[in-house]
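Dear colleagues,

As part of the handover before I leave the project, I'm documenting each prediction I ran so the next person doesn't have to rerun anything. This entry is a single chain, and its sequence is reproduced below.
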Amino acid sequence: MIAIEGAVRPRTRGDEPPLRSRLALAGACALAAVLHLWGIGSSWGNGYYSAAVKSMSASFEAFFFGSFDAAGVVTVDKPPMALWLQVLSVKIFGFNQFAVLFPQVVCGVAAVFLLHRTVRRWAGENAALIASLVLALSPITVLINRDNNPDTLLVLLVVAAAYAMTRAVSDRRSTGWIALAAFLVGCGFLTKMLQAWMVLPAFIAAYLVGSGNGWGRKSADLCVAAAVLLVGSFWWVVATELWPSPKPYIGGSTDGSAWDLIFGYNGFGRILGEGSGQGSGPGGGPGGGGGFSGTAGVLRMFNEQLAGQISWLLPLCALVLVTMLVLGVRHWRAGSSPHRELTAGWVLWGGWLVVIGVMFSFAQGTMHPYYTTMLAPAVGAVVGAGLVRFWQWYRQPGGKAWLLLPVGVAITVAWAMAVVARDMSWHPWTGYLAVGLGVLALVVLVVGRRGRAGVARAGFVLALSAMLTVPATWSAIGAVGGGTGMMGGANPMAGPQTSMGGPGGGSRDGRMPGMDGQVPGMSGQMPPGAFGDRGPGGGMGGGPGGASLSADQQKIVDHVKANAGGARIPLAVEGGANGASSYIINTDLAVVGMGGFMGSDDAPSVAQLTEWERSGQLGFVLLGGGPGSLVRAHDGQVLNGEQGGAGVRPPGGGRGGQAATDRENWVKRSCTLVDPAAYGGATDSSQQLYACG
């Protein structure tokens, strides 16, 4: 992917943008801020993480480990860096919905700004402005930045790392910049583990191609970067290993260690789909890769689940990258010397897009649509630089290269209409508007080809508007509508209510896709509120666990408060995070969600429960508090979420649902069932309260 000098105009020292460019950047950042901020004070986002934020604010140990419960029994199933920011926000603004989600807004806007500064150094001001606008209007980016999943911080960190890599290519002080890039990727690792490392092949290739240093200096710089990367990525992991017991169990692991989580369920399992890679996590539930993002394969990014999230400009990106590759090969054969910095930029952003796109397309494990937000910065950079180059060719007399701009417009608008046409019951006018603007843009571009520059510029503006019309509309509807997609904040998605959800969506009746309201392989339907209460627009508000306590749940809380005495753990809820989140968020009780996210972790173990009971630390246990029974279906197995799919072991405890079964049996043996009449509960409720004091 070798570019030639003049393909795009990089920033030079002292080359400050005019006022209109600075205002345009401010406008893009303001647009992102509005889309991210609108109505965030009315939702907890992903209740799993929101509950953890409250728990983490209780003690340093809970904060450091990212504990789901204040007692420090089990952590969330990710490293805690993204949650650390949310805890700091809660310390400033108090524990409320706005405080939990506000850091996401800051990180999202910062990513738009940093992408502009990065692309500007490589491709010039106009390309940078387009890139920032594309990122600000990417539907899945808007939806995930209104949520409190860790992907928002991850995107900011890798964009910041790309800026440092761009400086490392052009600056004589390359060692410091490449070390900074490695440190930022390490921070990304502590946000979402190995997913942050996906950018490394593109970063390394870009430095090797673009740096003017000798091979000895390059090798030394990369060795320094490798050392910084390893320290930055693993210091927290090592600290959790060295922390004296008792300490929180690392949620989602099979042995309670962060090492297992990194290389198992949240590592290679996501790509290879082996064992624990197909189990839980926020929104993971039964699903595997196919359950949330469709069948793995070369066309996955264009399927019903993902097309409306990120694919809008991918055909244009393909046209740009193929064009630049062909151009580069021709000049290489002609003996032309490539411009190192420009080439490095194409390698960095093109490599980022291709490597991560391929990884996501063929991932066999749990693959949520919102993961694709990591592609958005590369899409923006490639589109920005590509359109600037196409414009330059368009304005040059002679040749056929001028056709690339109208061709790019045509294929982009055609694809947008094709995506909209998949569900013509949901705002079909967006597709018609895009087509109308696209046709008008093509006419003006053809007329302005040899006419006045002002006419041609008007055509370019119309073309850009046409290409961004549908994604911009989907982003705005997702923001203003307040929806966060299937399973609330656990699986945010943009677009119409389809079989896999959209803003305010999930399936049309709120059921898990492909399950007809039932858990595969189990009798009975999902427990009410198992994946969140209904929110605005028919969506699920608050993520796992819902946003508020029901009347019966409040009666249980009142009874526990009155009778738990001084127990360190007044209430433990079986059923995982979905059962416990509402209790943690809406009460001041030290509630423990047994079993981690899906209830399958061996935390607390039966031995730990026995010790709590003997020492008087355990007050009550609530069974049937959430969908934890999902992981106990048929010998500790759960179906993978596809109709007729084979069963796979869920993560946690190394024994799947057996750990939950053992806990439940222990409770029934060791504790006393409380008569619902004692607290005014319903006698036909699936929930059973046991006194263990």
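The beta strands are 533-534, 540-541, 569-574, 591-594, 618-623, 638-639, 647-648, 672-673, 688-691. The chain has 26 helices and nine strands.

All the best with the project,
I.
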